[in-house]
Amino acid sequence: xxxxxxxxxxxxxxxxxxxxxxxxxxxxxxxxxxxxxxxxxxxxxxxxxxxxxxxxxxxxxxxxxxxxxxxxxxxxxxxxxxxxxxxxxxxxxxxxxxxxxxxxxxxxxxxxxxxxxxxxxxxxxxxxxxxxxxxxxxxxxxxxxxxxxxxxxxxxxxxxxxxxxxxxxxxxxxxxxxxxxxxxxxxxxxxxxxxxxxxxxxxxxxxxxxxxxxxxxxxxxxxxxxxxxxxxxxxxxxxxxxxxxxxxxxxxxxxxxxxxxxxxxxxxxxxxxxxxxxxxxxxxxxxxxxxxxxxxxxxxxxxxxxxxxxxx
Amino acid sequence: xxxxxxxxxxxxxxxxxxxxxxxxxxxxxxxxxxxxxxxxxxxxxxxxxxxxxxxxxxxxxxxxxxxxxxxxxxxxxxxxxxxxxxxxxxxxxxxxxxxxxxxxxxxxxxxxxxx
Lengths: 312, 115
What we know:
heterodimer; A: alpha+beta; Phosphorylase Kinase, domain 1; two-stranded antiparallel ribbon; 9 strands; 43% helix; B: 115 residues; mainly alpha; elongated
C-alpha cells in the first residue's frame, strides 16, 4: 500500500473507530481522490466504505460545497444517496453502494436491461425529492442567479473564439424563460453520476456542483446529448422526456414546460462545451498534463454541432 | 512531401507512431495506461486527418468568412455577440454548420452520423 493509502487507513480508523482493510485508490484527481476501504468492527462485522479526500486550499471555481450536509438533507428528503458515515474538513466517508456507474455498461450490458425502462421515471422522482429540500436547510450554497452571464464570462476567460457558442448565447438571452422558483439544484445529475443496479436507480452521486438555482436546470442537464452516450433516447440514453416529466410532475406537484426544459438543455449543451474547453486548458496551462484532457479540447465541436441542431 | 524534408512525411511519421501504439503498446498494457494509449491513438488519427484535410478546409473557411465580411473567427464571434448578424442569421448558420462539420471531420467523423 502507498503512503497515501496508509494515511487514509489511519484517518478512517480514527474517524470510524474500526480496523481498516483493503484500501484501494479508485480515482486520482488533481486535488481530490477517491478510495474504497473496508471497516471491520471489533465484533467482526465489516462495512464497505468510500472515502473522498478534498484537501483544504484546493483550487476551485467557487467555494467548497457542503457535501455531507447535502447528502444528509437529500437522504431526509427521500433521495437515494449513500449514507454519510463520518467526515472531517478533508475527508468524507460514505457507505459504498453496489452497482454500476459507467454509462456505456448501464446502457449496453444485459444485466441492466430490466432497469433501463424504469430509470427516466426514477430520475424524475429523485429530482423532485432533491428540489423539495428546504433551501435554508443547507447553508453555504452558491446562488446562480444568471446562468447565461455565468457561462458567458467563463467562456470569455479562455480567450478562444467560438462563434457557435455566441449564437447560442444570443438564442438563450432572447428566450429567457420565466423562473420556476429557487431550489437546491444538484448541478450534475446525469448518466455517469448515478449508481444503477439490475433493479434500477440506487444512488445519486457527485454533489460537488450543487447550488441554488432554477429546478428546471437539472431536468435540462439530464437531457443533454453528451449523456446519451451514443444511444438515441433523450434522457440519459435510457428514457423519453415524457417519462421524466410526468414522473417529476407527479412527485413534485410542479408542472413541467418542455420548452423551458429545452432552454436549459441548450444552456447545458453550451455549458458542457465550455467545460470541455476548461479541461483542455487544465492540460495546456500545465495544471495537469494529460493526453486525455488535451484531446477533450477537440470534443468541443461535438457540442457546437448539437447546439446548431437545437437552435438552427 | 514538403521540401526540404525527406520521406516519411510528417503524416507518415504520425501514422507510424500511431500503428506502434495500436499494435504493440495496446497489447502490452492494461487498465489506465491501455485506456490512455487508446486516447493517444485517437489523437494521432486526428492529426493525420488534419494534415490531410487541413489546407482545403482552411481555404473553404477563408472563403466563407470573406462572404460574411469578417477577418477571422474572433471577429465573427464578436459580431454575433454584438448583434451585427441578427438580420443575416440563415447565412451565419450556413457558415457555422460548414465550419463545425469541418472540425468534426478531423476530430470525430463518426459524430456526424449521430442525431
